[in-house]
From TrEMBL:
Transmembrane segments: none annotated. It catalyses: L-glutamine + H2O = L-glutamate + NH4(+); L-asparagine + H2O = L-aspartate + NH4(+). SMART domains: Asparaginase. Residues 36-226 form the L-asparaginase N-terminal domain. PROSITE patterns: ASN_GLN_ASE_1, ASN_GLN_ASE_2, ASN_GLN_ASE_3. Coiled coil: none annotated. The lineage of its organism: Bacteria, Pseudomonadati, Pseudomonadota, Gammaproteobacteria, Pseudomonadales. This is Glutaminase-asparaginase. GO terms for biological process: asparagine metabolic process. Its EC number is 3.5.1.38. Pfam families: Asparaginase, Asparaginase_C.
Length: 362
Protein backbone atom coordinates (compact mmCIF):
# COMPACT_ATOMS: atom_id res chain seq x y z
CA UNK A 1 0.00 0.00 0.00
CA UNK A 2 2.78 2.37 1.05
CA UNK A 3 4.64 1.65 -2.27
CA UNK A 4 1.43 2.43 -4.19
CA UNK A 5 1.01 5.77 -2.37
CA UNK A 6 4.65 6.65 -3.03
CA UNK A 7 4.02 6.17 -6.78
CA UNK A 8 0.70 8.02 -6.90
CA UNK A 9 1.71 11.06 -4.84
CA UNK A 10 4.30 12.48 -7.34
CA UNK A 11 1.86 11.87 -10.24
CA UNK A 12 -0.88 13.69 -8.33
CA UNK A 13 1.46 16.58 -7.63
CA UNK A 14 2.41 16.75 -11.34
CA UNK A 15 -1.26 16.86 -12.35
CA UNK A 16 -1.95 19.71 -9.89
CA UNK A 17 1.00 21.67 -11.28
CA UNK A 18 -0.25 21.13 -14.87
CA UNK A 19 -3.84 22.24 -14.05
CA UNK A 20 -4.74 25.74 -15.36
CA UNK A 21 -4.85 28.29 -12.49
CA UNK A 22 -8.43 29.04 -11.40
CA UNK A 23 -8.61 32.78 -11.42
CA UNK A 24 -11.06 34.41 -9.03
CA UNK A 25 -9.85 37.84 -9.98
CA UNK A 26 -11.90 38.08 -13.21
CA UNK A 27 -15.70 38.21 -12.78
CA UNK A 28 -17.21 35.46 -14.87
CA UNK A 29 -20.14 36.32 -17.11
CA UNK A 30 -22.39 34.29 -14.83
CA UNK A 31 -21.20 36.17 -11.73
CA UNK A 32 -21.65 39.47 -13.57
CA UNK A 33 -25.32 38.58 -14.16
CA UNK A 34 -25.94 37.59 -10.51
CA UNK A 35 -27.26 40.19 -8.08
CA UNK A 36 -24.93 41.44 -5.32
CA UNK A 37 -26.24 40.66 -1.83
CA UNK A 38 -24.60 41.75 1.43
CA UNK A 39 -25.24 39.66 4.55
CA UNK A 40 -25.05 41.69 7.78
CA UNK A 41 -24.65 39.31 10.72
CA UNK A 42 -25.79 40.33 14.20
CA UNK A 43 -25.83 37.03 16.16
CA UNK A 44 -28.74 34.96 17.43
CA UNK A 45 -29.50 31.26 17.12
CA UNK A 46 -28.71 31.22 13.41
CA UNK A 47 -25.16 31.80 14.67
CA UNK A 48 -25.67 29.48 17.62
CA UNK A 49 -23.98 26.22 18.63
CA UNK A 50 -25.21 23.40 20.83
CA UNK A 51 -23.25 20.63 22.60
CA UNK A 52 -24.77 17.88 20.47
CA UNK A 53 -27.02 17.30 17.46
CA UNK A 54 -29.80 16.44 19.90
CA UNK A 55 -29.66 19.97 21.39
CA UNK A 56 -32.26 21.75 19.29
CA UNK A 57 -33.33 24.09 22.10
CA UNK A 58 -30.34 24.09 24.47
CA UNK A 59 -27.40 25.96 22.93
CA UNK A 60 -25.42 29.16 22.99
CA UNK A 61 -26.60 31.89 20.60
CA UNK A 62 -24.25 34.31 18.84
CA UNK A 63 -21.15 32.14 18.43
CA UNK A 64 -20.60 31.42 14.70
CA UNK A 65 -19.03 34.18 12.56
CA UNK A 66 -20.62 35.33 9.30
CA UNK A 67 -17.88 33.79 7.15
CA UNK A 68 -18.78 30.39 8.59
CA UNK A 69 -22.50 30.99 8.05
CA UNK A 70 -21.88 31.80 4.38
CA UNK A 71 -19.43 28.89 3.94
CA UNK A 72 -22.04 26.59 5.46
CA UNK A 73 -24.39 27.22 2.50
CA UNK A 74 -22.22 26.95 -0.65
CA UNK A 75 -25.38 27.05 -2.79
CA UNK A 76 -25.67 30.77 -2.02
CA UNK A 77 -23.21 31.44 -4.81
CA UNK A 78 -25.75 30.03 -7.31
CA UNK A 79 -28.23 32.69 -6.17
CA UNK A 80 -26.11 35.83 -5.87
CA UNK A 81 -22.65 37.27 -5.39
CA UNK A 82 -22.67 37.23 -1.61
CA UNK A 83 -20.38 38.89 0.90
CA UNK A 84 -20.72 39.02 4.67
CA UNK A 85 -20.10 41.68 7.32
CA UNK A 86 -20.17 41.00 11.07
CA UNK A 87 -22.03 43.96 12.60
CA UNK A 88 -22.61 42.52 16.09
CA UNK A 89 -22.46 39.08 17.70
CA UNK A 90 -25.28 39.31 20.24
CA UNK A 91 -28.38 37.42 21.31
CA UNK A 92 -31.16 39.70 20.15
CA UNK A 93 -32.94 39.89 23.53
CA UNK A 94 -29.97 42.09 24.45
CA UNK A 95 -30.35 44.48 21.50
CA UNK A 96 -30.21 48.14 22.55
CA UNK A 97 -31.50 51.30 20.84
CA UNK A 98 -27.88 52.02 19.91
CA UNK A 99 -27.72 48.62 18.15
CA UNK A 100 -30.86 49.55 16.19
CA UNK A 101 -29.44 52.95 15.18
CA UNK A 102 -26.02 51.53 14.20
CA UNK A 103 -27.54 48.71 12.14
CA UNK A 104 -29.97 51.07 10.38
CA UNK A 105 -27.16 53.48 9.49
CA UNK A 106 -25.15 50.59 7.97
CA UNK A 107 -28.19 49.37 5.99
CA UNK A 108 -28.88 52.90 4.72
CA UNK A 109 -25.28 53.31 3.63
CA UNK A 110 -25.19 49.97 1.78
CA UNK A 111 -28.60 50.57 0.17
CA UNK A 112 -27.19 53.71 -1.47
CA UNK A 113 -24.37 51.74 -3.14
CA UNK A 114 -24.95 50.89 -6.81
CA UNK A 115 -23.05 47.60 -6.34
CA UNK A 116 -25.52 46.41 -3.66
CA UNK A 117 -28.80 44.94 -4.93
CA UNK A 118 -30.14 43.48 -1.70
CA UNK A 119 -29.32 43.13 1.99
CA UNK A 120 -29.86 40.15 4.31
CA UNK A 121 -29.63 40.61 8.08
CA UNK A 122 -29.06 37.48 10.17
CA UNK A 123 -30.61 38.16 13.57
CA UNK A 124 -31.80 36.52 16.75
CA UNK A 125 -35.45 35.59 16.61
CA UNK A 126 -36.45 37.12 19.96
CA UNK A 127 -36.50 40.75 18.79
CA UNK A 128 -36.26 40.22 15.02
CA UNK A 129 -39.77 41.68 14.69
CA UNK A 130 -38.70 44.92 16.41
CA UNK A 131 -35.63 45.43 14.25
CA UNK A 132 -37.59 44.60 11.10
CA UNK A 133 -40.28 47.16 11.92
CA UNK A 134 -37.73 49.81 12.89
CA UNK A 135 -35.91 49.43 9.55
CA UNK A 136 -39.27 49.41 7.74
CA UNK A 137 -39.90 52.89 9.20
CA UNK A 138 -36.53 54.57 8.67
CA UNK A 139 -34.71 53.08 5.62
CA UNK A 140 -35.32 55.18 2.50
CA UNK A 141 -34.68 52.58 -0.18
CA UNK A 142 -36.85 50.18 -2.15
CA UNK A 143 -34.08 47.58 -2.35
CA UNK A 144 -34.94 44.33 -0.58
CA UNK A 145 -33.84 44.24 3.08
CA UNK A 146 -34.55 40.78 4.49
CA UNK A 147 -34.21 39.69 8.11
CA UNK A 148 -33.66 36.01 8.85
CA UNK A 149 -33.00 33.87 11.89
CA UNK A 150 -33.41 30.30 12.96
CA UNK A 151 -35.14 28.44 15.74
CA UNK A 152 -32.46 25.74 15.97
CA UNK A 153 -28.66 26.13 16.02
CA UNK A 154 -26.70 24.88 13.00
CA UNK A 155 -25.32 22.06 15.15
CA UNK A 156 -28.76 20.49 15.69
CA UNK A 157 -30.51 17.76 13.72
CA UNK A 158 -32.91 19.32 11.19
CA UNK A 159 -31.39 22.74 11.78
CA UNK A 160 -33.48 25.38 9.97
CA UNK A 161 -30.84 28.11 9.61
CA UNK A 162 -29.24 26.95 6.36
CA UNK A 163 -32.45 26.87 4.34
CA UNK A 164 -33.70 30.07 6.02
CA UNK A 165 -30.48 31.83 4.96
CA UNK A 166 -30.70 30.39 1.43
CA UNK A 167 -34.32 31.57 1.19
CA UNK A 168 -33.47 35.01 2.55
CA UNK A 169 -30.75 35.51 -0.08
CA UNK A 170 -33.14 34.22 -2.75
CA UNK A 171 -35.64 36.94 -1.80
CA UNK A 172 -33.01 39.67 -1.33
CA UNK A 173 -31.60 39.11 -4.85
CA UNK A 174 -35.09 39.12 -6.40
CA UNK A 175 -36.26 42.31 -8.14
CA UNK A 176 -39.88 41.34 -7.36
CA UNK A 177 -39.08 41.92 -3.66
CA UNK A 178 -38.32 45.60 -4.31
CA UNK A 179 -40.74 48.14 -2.89
CA UNK A 180 -42.43 45.70 -0.49
CA UNK A 181 -40.83 47.20 2.60
CA UNK A 182 -38.47 45.41 4.96
CA UNK A 183 -39.16 41.68 4.96
CA UNK A 184 -38.61 38.71 7.23
CA UNK A 185 -38.05 35.24 5.80
CA UNK A 186 -38.55 32.26 8.09
CA UNK A 187 -39.76 28.70 7.53
CA UNK A 188 -40.30 29.21 3.75
CA UNK A 189 -42.59 32.23 4.35
CA UNK A 190 -42.02 35.87 3.39
CA UNK A 191 -43.48 38.26 5.98
CA UNK A 192 -43.82 42.01 6.15
CA UNK A 193 -41.42 43.43 8.74
CA UNK A 194 -44.35 45.49 10.01
CA UNK A 195 -46.72 42.60 10.65
CA UNK A 196 -44.50 39.67 11.62
CA UNK A 197 -43.96 38.59 15.20
CA UNK A 198 -42.57 35.56 16.99
CA UNK A 199 -45.69 33.69 18.08
CA UNK A 200 -44.18 30.35 19.21
CA UNK A 201 -41.06 30.02 21.31
CA UNK A 202 -39.47 26.68 20.31
CA UNK A 203 -40.92 25.45 17.01
CA UNK A 204 -39.48 26.18 13.53
CA UNK A 205 -42.94 27.44 12.51
CA UNK A 206 -42.59 30.29 14.96
CA UNK A 207 -43.27 33.49 13.01
CA UNK A 208 -46.80 34.68 12.23
CA UNK A 209 -48.39 37.79 10.76
CA UNK A 210 -51.93 38.56 12.00
CA UNK A 211 -53.01 39.47 8.46
CA UNK A 212 -50.99 36.68 6.82
CA UNK A 213 -47.61 36.29 5.14
CA UNK A 214 -46.91 38.23 1.93
CA UNK A 215 -45.74 35.10 0.15
CA UNK A 216 -43.51 32.05 0.09
CA UNK A 217 -40.06 31.21 -1.18
CA UNK A 218 -39.53 27.73 -2.55
CA UNK A 219 -36.33 26.37 -4.12
CA UNK A 220 -34.94 29.88 -4.55
CA UNK A 221 -38.05 31.43 -6.13
CA UNK A 222 -40.35 33.98 -4.48
CA UNK A 223 -44.13 33.61 -4.80
CA UNK A 224 -46.13 36.71 -3.80
CA UNK A 225 -49.80 36.83 -2.76
CA UNK A 226 -50.05 40.22 -0.99
CA UNK A 227 -48.27 43.55 -0.72
CA UNK A 228 -48.16 45.91 2.33
CA UNK A 229 -50.57 48.88 2.39
CA UNK A 230 -49.20 50.75 5.40
CA UNK A 231 -46.50 53.42 4.79
CA UNK A 232 -42.91 52.18 4.79
CA UNK A 233 -39.35 52.85 3.57
CA UNK A 234 -39.43 55.35 0.71
CA UNK A 235 -42.98 56.48 1.67
CA UNK A 236 -42.04 57.04 5.30
CA UNK A 237 -41.75 60.53 6.83
CA UNK A 238 -39.01 59.14 9.11
CA UNK A 239 -35.41 58.83 7.96
CA UNK A 240 -32.51 57.23 9.85
CA UNK A 241 -30.24 59.97 8.50
CA UNK A 242 -32.25 62.50 10.51
CA UNK A 243 -32.46 60.47 13.76
CA UNK A 244 -29.62 60.92 16.27
CA UNK A 245 -31.19 59.10 19.22
CA UNK A 246 -34.38 57.38 20.30
CA UNK A 247 -36.48 58.49 23.30
CA UNK A 248 -37.25 56.13 26.14
CA UNK A 249 -40.59 54.32 25.66
CA UNK A 250 -41.63 51.51 28.01
CA UNK A 251 -44.30 48.81 28.03
CA UNK A 252 -46.48 48.07 31.07
CA UNK A 253 -48.41 44.81 31.01
CA UNK A 254 -52.08 44.64 32.06
CA UNK A 255 -53.34 41.76 34.28
CA UNK A 256 -55.60 41.14 37.30
CA UNK A 257 -55.01 43.06 40.54
CA UNK A 258 -53.03 45.71 38.63
CA UNK A 259 -51.78 48.87 40.31
CA UNK A 260 -49.81 51.86 38.98
CA UNK A 261 -46.36 50.90 40.28
CA UNK A 262 -44.83 50.10 36.88
CA UNK A 263 -46.27 53.21 35.20
CA UNK A 264 -44.95 55.50 37.96
CA UNK A 265 -41.52 53.83 37.78
CA UNK A 266 -41.29 54.22 34.01
CA UNK A 267 -42.32 57.87 34.23
CA UNK A 268 -39.67 58.43 36.92
CA UNK A 269 -37.09 56.75 34.69
CA UNK A 270 -37.79 59.32 31.97
CA UNK A 271 -40.17 57.52 29.62
CA UNK A 272 -41.65 59.89 27.01
CA UNK A 273 -44.46 57.41 26.29
CA UNK A 274 -45.84 54.31 27.94
CA UNK A 275 -47.37 51.50 25.92
CA UNK A 276 -50.18 49.98 27.95
CA UNK A 277 -50.31 46.29 26.97
CA UNK A 278 -53.89 46.03 28.13
CA UNK A 279 -56.15 43.05 28.63
CA UNK A 280 -58.68 42.44 25.87
CA UNK A 281 -59.31 45.52 23.76
CA UNK A 282 -56.55 47.48 25.51
CA UNK A 283 -58.59 47.81 28.71
CA UNK A 284 -57.16 49.82 31.62
CA UNK A 285 -57.83 48.63 35.19
CA UNK A 286 -59.78 51.27 37.15
CA UNK A 287 -57.05 51.87 39.79
CA UNK A 288 -54.60 52.80 37.03
CA UNK A 289 -56.76 55.28 35.06
CA UNK A 290 -56.11 58.32 37.34
CA UNK A 291 -52.34 57.74 37.13
CA UNK A 292 -52.40 57.52 33.33
CA UNK A 293 -54.46 60.71 33.15
CA UNK A 294 -51.96 62.47 35.44
CA UNK A 295 -48.96 61.22 33.45
CA UNK A 296 -50.63 62.46 30.23
CA UNK A 297 -51.15 65.83 31.88
CA UNK A 298 -47.40 65.80 32.69
CA UNK A 299 -46.66 65.41 28.97
CA UNK A 300 -46.17 61.63 28.62
CA UNK A 301 -47.97 60.00 25.70
CA UNK A 302 -50.23 57.12 26.73
CA UNK A 303 -50.69 54.50 24.00
CA UNK A 304 -53.16 51.67 24.44
CA UNK A 305 -52.13 48.36 22.87
CA UNK A 306 -53.28 44.88 23.84
CA UNK A 307 -51.70 41.74 25.26
CA UNK A 308 -54.11 39.92 22.92
CA UNK A 309 -52.62 40.00 19.48
CA UNK A 310 -53.52 37.67 16.68
CA UNK A 311 -55.80 39.34 14.14
CA UNK A 312 -57.58 42.14 15.98
CA UNK A 313 -56.93 45.78 16.90
CA UNK A 314 -57.58 48.20 19.74
CA UNK A 315 -60.64 50.32 18.99
CA UNK A 316 -60.39 54.01 19.85
CA UNK A 317 -62.94 55.22 22.47
CA UNK A 318 -64.29 51.70 23.00
CA UNK A 319 -62.96 50.42 26.34
CA UNK A 320 -61.66 53.87 27.33
CA UNK A 321 -62.66 57.51 26.43
CA UNK A 322 -59.45 58.15 24.48
CA UNK A 323 -60.69 61.50 23.14
CA UNK A 324 -61.46 62.76 26.66
CA UNK A 325 -58.21 61.35 28.12
CA UNK A 326 -56.12 62.53 25.13
CA UNK A 327 -54.71 59.01 24.75
CA UNK A 328 -53.59 57.18 21.58
CA UNK A 329 -54.48 53.66 20.43
CA UNK A 330 -51.88 51.36 18.81
CA UNK A 331 -54.44 50.01 16.32
CA UNK A 332 -53.28 46.45 15.39
CA UNK A 333 -49.68 46.82 16.58
CA UNK A 334 -48.61 44.54 19.42
CA UNK A 335 -46.96 46.25 22.39
CA UNK A 336 -43.37 45.70 21.22
CA UNK A 337 -44.17 47.03 17.73
CA UNK A 338 -46.09 49.97 19.22
CA UNK A 339 -43.00 50.82 21.26
CA UNK A 340 -40.84 50.91 18.10
CA UNK A 341 -43.28 53.19 16.27
CA UNK A 342 -43.71 55.44 19.31
CA UNK A 343 -39.93 55.88 19.66
CA UNK A 344 -39.54 56.77 15.98
CA UNK A 345 -42.62 59.02 15.94
CA UNK A 346 -41.54 60.90 19.08
CA UNK A 347 -38.28 61.94 17.40
CA UNK A 348 -40.54 64.43 15.59
CA UNK A 349 -42.23 65.58 18.83
CA UNK A 350 -45.85 65.19 17.61
CA UNK A 351 -48.91 66.13 19.68
CA UNK A 352 -51.32 63.28 20.44
CA UNK A 353 -53.47 63.95 17.37
CA UNK A 354 -50.43 63.72 15.09
CA UNK A 355 -49.22 60.67 16.99
CA UNK A 356 -52.58 58.97 16.45
CA UNK A 357 -52.37 59.72 12.71
CA UNK A 358 -48.95 58.06 12.65
CA UNK A 359 -50.38 54.97 14.32
CA UNK A 360 -53.17 54.83 11.73
CA UNK A 361 -50.74 55.19 8.80
CA UNK A 362 -47.76 53.03 9.78
N1 LIG B 1 -31.73 34.29 22.21
C1 LIG B 1 -32.38 34.25 20.92
C2 LIG B 1 -32.04 35.52 20.14
O1 LIG B 1 -30.86 35.81 19.97
C3 LIG B 1 -31.93 33.10 20.11
C4 LIG B 1 -32.66 33.06 18.81
O2 LIG B 1 -33.73 32.48 18.80
O3 LIG B 1 -32.19 33.61 17.82
O4 LIG B 1 -32.98 36.17 19.70
Amino acid sequence: MKILLNRIAPLGLLLVLLMPPVSHARTTDAEAKLANVVILATGGTIAGAGASAANSATYQAAKVPVEQLVAGVPELKDLANVRGEQVFQVASESFTNDNLLQLARQVAKLAKQADVDGIVITHGTDTLEETAYFLNLVIHSDKPVVLVGSMRPGTAMSADGMLNLYNAVAVARDATARGKGVLAVMNDEIHSGRDVSKAVNIRTEAFKSPWGALGMVVEGKSYWFRAPLKRHTTASEFDIEKIDSLPRVDIAYGYGNLDDTAYQAFAKAGAKAIIHAGTGNGSVAAPVVPTLKALRADGLQIIRSSRVNQGGFVLRNAEQPDDANDWVVAHDLNPQKARILAMVALTGNPDSQALQRIFWEY
